[in-house]
Automatic annotation (TrEMBL):
Any matching Pfam family: Phage_integrase
Family: Belongs to the 'phage' integrase family.
Domain of life: Bacteria
Tyr recombinase domain residues: 156-324
Key words, A-Z: DNA integration, DNA recombination, DNA-binding
Domain Core-binding (CB): start-end pairs: 58-136
PANTHER family to which the protein is assigned, alphabetical: PHAGE INTEGRASE-RELATED (PTHR30349), PROPHAGE INTEGRASE INTD-RELATED (PTHR30349:SF64)
The protein's name: Site-specific integrase
The keyword DNA-binding is annotated on this UniProt entry: yes
Transferase among keywords: no
CDD domains per UniProt: INT_Rci_Hp1_C (cd00796)
InterPro entries hit by this protein: CB, DNA_brk_join_enz, Integrase-like_cat_sf, Integrase_catalytic, Integrase_recombinase_N, Tyrosine_recombinase_XerCD
Length: 356
């Protein structure tokens, strides 16, 4: 029987025998007419491959399986898997060469309709582009890759909170999250590096920790100098777990975006704040304290200084000397602090000049 349904499936399957070889595939549809069309196309394709030596066609599923096997090192693997699970409902069983410009536009509209923003859609499209490029350039499964148009993304401001807001948040957090927040603000480490921190990565005598290359987003080892406050936080965790530094009820912490975290933010009156914004807060505080950008880059393990320039606008101390050169008020430096409106009026300058 060339067209049939399995007991555990609602979709039709095809079974084709060609040159003694049996090929069985899911049609991906419960519609018998569409399933028959799939069967007929597959039969012609297999005949062309066997008799005419035509290039074999590959499916999206086959490409995903191979791509995942070759990219196990990716730091964003968790995000990739989430995108691929969503794409499965649209591309399951679809031929690679059928993923054209129109198909991509349909995927883009469907993703936007799910309520996500342009940046999330772009991450999904970039993943599809990566898979299709490998299929064309490395595996030789495709002759060409369709152009993928990304959506515009507005520049987002850096979200950070003040020390007073941090104090309010810490008062609302349970002890295990409080310790992790304090440590994050002392080191600037990413969420996964804090939750996965092992005692084997800590040297309290030398006051340092380290992140191995396979744990870092940029895939470079990161040396983490520990402040006195960070050392105190680490010492508070001694004896709680054999391997992991931060734990909850005797078990390593796997997730921080919990109800306890969200409720603490609500009670503290802090809105639009993610766990990753603790890293932004740490970097912002450093810049405001005068830490040079190249030093901050090394401390934070960023791959390029351009990633750190996002915080440059938070400090203008290095520019103060230049703006003074063009000051409309040639005030003697020693008198600058005491120069007031009354003094200006006596000299005939008035409020207009003081506002410069």
């Amino acid at each position: 029987m060339s067209l049939f349904k399995r007991k555990d499936s609602s979709v039709y399957w095809v079974k084709i025998t060609i040159n003694g070889r049996i090929v069985q595939k899911s049609t991906g549809t419960p519609d018998k007419t569409k399933a028959q069309e799939f069967h007929d196309r597959l039969k012609v394709q297999l005949w062309e491959q066997t008799k005419l030596g035509a290039k074999r066609g590959y499916s999206w599923n086959e490409a995903v399986v191979r791509w995942l096997s070759e990219t196990q090192h990716k730091a964003s693997r968790g995000d990739d898997l989430a995108h691929l699970r969503w794409l499965d409902q649209h591309l399951n069983g679809v031929a690679l060469d059928a993923i054209n410009r129109d198909a991509l536009d349909q995927l883009m509209r469907a993703k936007l309709a799910s309520g996500v923003g342009n940046s999330t859609v772009n991450r999904m499209l970039a993943l599809i582009r990566s898979i299709l490029r490998k299929a064309a350039l490395e595996w030789e499964w495709l002759d060409k890759v369709p152009k993928i148009r990304l959506l515009p993304e507005p520049s987002r401001r850096i979200r950070w909170i003040t020390r007073e807001e941090v104090d309010r948040l810490l008062l609302e957090l349970p002890d295990h999250l409080k310790a992790m927040v304090r440590f994050s603000l002392e080191t600037g480490l990413r969420q996964a590096n804090v939750t996965g921190l092992l005692w084997s990565q800590i040297d309290l005598t030398r006051r340092c920790a380290w992140i191995h290359p396979d744990q870092a987003k940029a895939r470079r080892a990161i040396a983490v100098p520990l402040s006195k406050a960070a050392v105190v936080i680490i010492r508070e965790q001694l004896g709680k777990h054999q391997s992991h530094v931060f734990t909850y009820q005797g078990h390593p912490v796997r997730e921080v975006n919990t109800k306890a975290w969200r409720n603490a933010l609500d009670r503290a009156g802090i809105e639009d704040f993610r766990w990753h914004d603790l890293r932004h807060t740490w970097a912002s505080w450093h810049v405001q304290a005068g830490t040079p950008l190249h030093v901050l880059q090394e401390l934070g393990g960023w791959e390029s200084v351009e990633m750190v320039r996002r915080y440059a606008h938070l400090s203008s101390e290095h520019l103060a000397g230049y703006v003074d050169r063009l000051s409309a008020l040639h005030v003697v430096e020693d008198d600058a602090d005491s120069y007031d409106l009354a003094t200006a009026n006596k000299k005939g300058l008035g409020e207009k000049h003081l506002s410069l």
